Amino acid sequence: MPENTMKKPHILTLDNRKLLTLSGVEDVSGFDEQTINVKLSDATLVVKGTGLHISKLSLESGDVVIDGLITSLQYLGASNGSLRSRLFR
Q: Contact at 8 Å (CB) between 8 and 24?
């Protein structure tokens, strides 16, 4: 990675599968009541569920709050490998 491009860290907090708070967000590339695609610096986080709603979005601060019933969180395109490959190096 070039020195002038820093990955922005993100923090994910899931409360009782009904409230997801994210920081370090760069963009929300698509959303409906079943799927929300959140762009992070090195991956896209796909949030799936029912009745999903973005209750807060601030791209200036990089904060997103999603409510609804969250059934799945999936990282796509992470540049540093899968969780399994990172755990068993």
A: yes
Q: Are 20 and 47 in contact (CB under 8 A)?
A: yes
Task: State the amino acid at position 30 in one-letter form.
Answer: G
- The predicted-structure confidence for 33-76, as pLDDT tens digits, reads as follows 999 999 998 899 999 999 999 999 999 999 999 999 999 999 99
Q: For residue 89, what are the contacts with CB-CB under 8 A and spacing of at least 6?
A: none
Given a contact cutoff of 8 angstroms between Cβ atoms, the answer to whether 45 and 29 are in contact is no
pTM: 0.79
The CATH architecture that domain 11-77 belongs to is Sandwich (2.60)
Domain residue extents for the chain: 11-77
